[in-house]
Design brief:
The complex is a heterodimer of chains A (190) and B (580). Helices cover 38% and strands 23% of the residues of chain A. Chain A has eight helices and six strands; from the N terminus they run E-H-E-E-E-H-E-H-H-E-H-H-H-H. Chain A is globular, with a radius of gyration of 16 Å. Chain B has 21 helices and 22 strands. In chain B, the strands form six sheets. A seven-stranded mixed β-sheet of chain B has the order 3-2-4-5-7-6-12, sandwiched between helices. Chain B has a five-stranded parallel β-sheet with strand order 14-15-16-18-17, sandwiched between helices. The longest helix of chain B is centred in the middle third of the chain and has 24 residues. Chain B is globular and about 80 Å long. Classes of the chains: A alpha/beta (190), B alpha/beta (580). At the A-B interface, helix 1, strand 2, helix 2, strand 5 and helix 3 of A face strand 1, strand 8, helix 11 and strand 20 of B.
Chain lengths: 190, 580
């Protein structure tokens, strides 16, 4: 199989590392070669962060370049817009509608663009946008946005739910398992 | 067992399987997780040393005593440890020594993007360079074998994309090497001139023997290709980009050991292709060696020495078409990293900004004090430089500078290399004011313990250095401690110490807001009737505070109730969240 590319983008501290860990585990268990590339260090401090997940028969590069992503999974709307050039022309965006003002917006040096979902759609990209923060809170914790997004992403993967759940079991701490299972279902069924 | 494993964790696994017994490191992105992961194996003694030089010397002692040892660091850490490194090349080892060094092309979290491969050549040491996690594990084990076989420390060079990428590895059991005992050997281990003169030819001979080994080593791999119009020499993550773009089209010489290089193998490879191309990140290191051999090639004239490469960069230069994606016709505001909500550094930097201080800074999360709106840092160079440079600044300008210039340095950075600069202030007597930002942890690299925290790498109680007592013992009579959440106290202490006619140390003490044991207050709320929209609360650059529709707004998901913004509000509009 040709290598498939998933980018997970968001704001440092939102939990993208756990999402990539889960996805990596799931895909390795399906027998794929997998590479996951992460960001550590200074950028994690509230900056724009990106994680790359690549899978296929044989994966070489650990990174995804412009025009290569089959999926962009975004924790935040502005980040979906920022990383849009990395999407393939027939690629799919799965994004939370949450908006977090970056420092230039907070200080008034820049404005947070309006109607981003519509503008991204106008470029021809397919966008699946949902309020993941509200769904995560409904599941029991605002920190479960990452698993809500994974639930939504599962629509497009053609991998059975029980395999996703097994990957969740292998990735999240036992005491948060039920909460995360709820978050996954809420994202999937939204 | 097959596992998806981070490159750094794969190195740790390799160290474990190779029977490594002692690890001493200093944290530094992107090298930190090697030592953190290794500390999870009970069979290995692991520690955070105060700095890389101490770590490397510790490891040297452990090798001398007969145990396989490892120290890990980032590229700039190797500068700190360069002193022991160059002479350990002369002494060689007893049990194997592997030195992990991680470069940061693209400067994801670094102050420069120097290329560590030059150290291998300069110190005449072998350097292995893995290109994924499986190789990271394999090369870590191989490095110990080479170390003992050739009597040399071995450098294991990582880069951000290998260190911080997960790929699949096969693990195996830990195998302990044959026991080595410490044996007194003055001629080998006492590097005074008479002995070192005899060791130098041994070093040169060792490089020749390693170069011969490199000719037949399977880690320097020739991969055949269909089209001999082009042949590519590459290593590390660059190899992955080349394979991604070219597959099996062109022959590739993939170097697993980048120093010394296999002369004959490279010459034969060059002769088998029409055009030789070297693809490598940062400097033209392999290229320079090939040019010394008189080979003509393309390299850095195509692939720049700045930043990271990628499959696109390789494809573009090889003339392979590539879709560049679609962007929005819209200005996307940047999202630079910021100090977290509740960060204890914020109050102190606000005070420095208000007092119009010239701030000489250092390496850590607090380097973000240079970012607007605080913009209260004017110099950052390397670990510890704030303290020494402040002394020089004040010596150069005297009273003109002394009353308004300060150094700021974190607790871990102070332990790393701030103490010696402080000794210079005490000894050569500049009227300097040094501020130690004591957040009780090494923050930037992800919360590692250090000599001031009272805990070791495993989180168990350990020795704890008393910063106040240390500064006093160095001759500072004025040592003040202040809570950076208390702006009035910060302002008072800063003014007093800048005015004092003698050197002083201010310790700004409060634990990092992200530490799990730190208990936060409820988020603040805005009384919109009292708020006049004056934006005073915006001067601190807190990500939780913004202005919406002319009024202050506090993001309750971010706010930890530190109260710094509250102290700036003259109208009492910011208050603790009232129950509805």
């Amino acid at each position: 199989m040709e290598t498939k590319n998933v980018m997970i983008v968001g704001v440092g501290g939102q939990g993208s590392l756990l999402a990539s860990k889960l996805l990596g585990r799931l895909l390795m268990d399906q027998g794929y070669d997998v590479k996951v590339s992460e960001v550590h260090g200074m950028s994690q401090r509230g900056g724009s962060v990106v994680t790359y997940v690549r899978y296929g028969d044989r994966v070489y590069s650990p990174v995804i370049d412009k025009g290569e992503a089959d999926f962009i999974v975004s924790f935040e709307l502005l980040e979906a817009a920022r990383w849009l050039p990395y999407l393939k022309r027939d690629g799919q965006i799965v994004t939370s509608t949450q908006q977090i003002d970056p420092m230039p917006v907070i200080t008034g040096a820049a404005e947070y663009p309006e109607d981003l979902v519509e503008k991204i759609r106008a470029t021809g990209a397919r966008v699946d946008a949902l309020d993941c923060l509200a769904l995560a809170e409904k599941a029991g914790s605002s920190k479960a946005v990452n698993i809500v997004l994974m639930g939504r992403l599962s629509h497009y993967f053609g991998i059975d739910d029980d395999k996703w759940l097994r990957a969740i079991e292998a990735t999240v701490p036992a005491k948060f398992l039920e909460l995360n299972k709820r978050a996954f279902a809420l994202g999937r069924d939204a | 067992m097959r596992q998806l494993t981070l490159g750094n964790a794969a190195v740790a696994r390799g160290l474990y399987e190779a029977g490594c017994s002692v690890i001493s490191s200093y944290p530094g992105t992107p090298s930190t997780e090697i030592t953190e992961e290794a500390a999870k194996y009970d069979e290995i003694y692991c520690e955070w040393a105060p700095n890389e030089k101490v770590a490397m010397e510790t490891v040297f002692g452990a090798s001398l005593a007969g145990k396989r040892s490892f120290c890990g660091m980032k590229h700039v850490g190797l500068n700190v440890a360069a002193d022991p490194l160059f002479t350990m090349s002369y002494t060689g080892v007893n049990a194997g020594i592997v030195i992990g060094v991680a470069d940061d092309a693209g400067m994801h979290s670094s102050q420069n993007e120097q290329d560590s491969r030059h150290y291998a050549r300069a110190a005449k040491l072998p350097m292995l360079e893995p290109s994924d996690s499986a190789e990271a594990l394999h090369f870590a084990k191989l490095a110990f074998d080479l170390s003992e076989r050739f009597d040399t420390p071995v450098l294991l060079k990582m880069c951000t994309r290998v260190a911080h990428s997960q790929s699949i590895v096969e693990t195996s059991q830990r195998v302990m090497p044959a026991e080595r005992r410490y044996e007194k050997n003055i001629a080998k281990y006492v590097m005074m001139p008479g002995n070192a003169i005899r060791r130098h030819p041994i070093v040169e001979e060792r490089v020749r023997k390693l170069a011969l080994w490199a000719e037949t080593a399977d880690i320097n791999r020739l991969e055949p290709g269909e089209d001999h119009k082009l042949g590519i020499i590459t290593s590390s993550t660059s190899y992955q980009y080349v394979k991604e773009v070219c597959g099996d089209k062109y022959p590739i010489l993939k170097l697993g050991m980048v120093w010394p290089m296999p002369e004959k193998k490279i010459r034969e490879f060059a002769a088998s292709v029409s055009l030789l191309c070297v693809v490598e990140e940062l400097d033209g290191f392999i290229e320079a060696y090939c040019r010394e051999l008189g080979l003509s090639l393309v390299g850095k004239d195509y692939f720049p020495p700045e930043g990271e490469l990628s499959q696109t960069a390789v494809a573009e230069k090889l003339g392979i078409p590539h879709d560049s994606g679609v962007s929005l016709d819209e200005i996307i505001p940047n999202r630079p990293p910021v100090m977290c909500a509740g960060c204890p550094h914020r109050g102190l930097f606000y005070t420095l900004s208000r007092n119009k201080c010239t701030v000489l800074g250092d390496i850590g999360c607090y380097t973000l004090g240079a970012v607007a709106p605080l913009a209260a840092m004017e110099m950052t160079l390397c670990m510890g430089a704030s303290v020494s440079a402040l002394h020089g600044f004040n010596k150069a300008l005297g009273a003109e500078a002394e009353g308004r210039t300060v150094a700021v340095i974190g607790d871990s950075t102070f332990m790393h290399s701030g103490m010696t600069g402080l000794a210079n202030i005490a000894y050569n007597q500049s009227n300097s004011t040094v501020i130690i930002l004591d957040n009780s942890i090494t923050g930037m690299t992800g919360h590692q313990q250090n000599p001031t925290t009272g805990y070791n790498i495993k989180g168990d109680p350990a020795g704890k250095i008393d910063l106040e007592a240390l500064c006093r013992a160095m001759g500072f009579d004025r040592v003040r401690v202040v809570d950076p959440y208390d702006l009035a106290a910060c302002d008072k202490v800063l003014k007093e110490e800048l005015a004092a006619p003698e050197p002083s140390v201010i310790i700004s003490r409060r634990p990092c807001a992200l530490l799990k044991y730190v208990k936060h207050k409820p988020p603040l709320s805005v009384d919109s009737e009292k708020c006049v929209g004056c934006k005073s609360c915006m001067h601190i650059g807190c990500p939780a505070v913004s202005i919406k529709d002319g009024k202050a707004r506090v993001d309750a998901t971010l706010c930890v109730g530190c109260g710094v913004c509250q102290q700036l509000c003259k109208f009492g509009a910011l208050g603790e969240n009232k129950e509805e």
